[in-house]
Design a protein that fits this description.
6 helices, Arc Repressor Mutant, subunit A, 6 strands, Dna Ligase, domain 1, globular
Length: about 140
């Protein structure tokens, strides 16, 4: 655990952010969850720190997640349930969004990302520079 905290501190410092206890705790929760919205992070923090509900508001957690995303440590993932999800994986990849459970699952397919990037480059949309490819499939997992 101490190594993880040192790694988080170094990561925050690399991105010009102070390693506050709040940021460290939220980063730890996000690494456990992978993809999460602010209320999911709040619930996870509550499991990790029993006094968290007295220390953190949902707004504080959301603002910290936004700050971490602005620094490039997380990626924003909009959803159809009007909540902003955040992702610990910052590379281009696909997601499966389950409409029943409102969960995101990584779907790594570098070939698909490459095909889309090449197609986009060939079309050259006027006055638009591609930064990321974010493919989002919506459906539900069936048993």
């Amino acid at each position: 655990m101490e190594k993880k905290i040192r790694d988080f501190r170094a990561l925050l410092n690399q991105h010009g952010l102070k390693a506050t206890s709040q940021r460290l705790l939220i980063l730890e929760a996000m690494t456990k969850l992978g993809h999460a919205c602010a209320d999911m992070v709040m619930a996870e923090i509550g499991k990790m720190d029993r006094e968290a509900d007295r220390k953190y508001t949902l707004a504080t957690i959301y603002n910290t997640l936004k700050c971490l995303a602005d620094a490039g440590l997380l990626v924003r993932r909009p959803s159809i349930n009007s909540k902003m999800y955040f992702d610990v994986n910052t590379y281009d990849h696909c997601h499966l969004y389950d409409v029943k459970s409102h969960t995101l699952t990584d779907f790594d397919d570098s070939e698909l990302i490459h095909i889309i990037s090449d197609y986009f480059a060939a079309k050259k949309p006027h006055n638009f520079q591609l930064e990321h490819v974010d493919v989002h499939f919506t459906g539900e997992f069936v048993k």
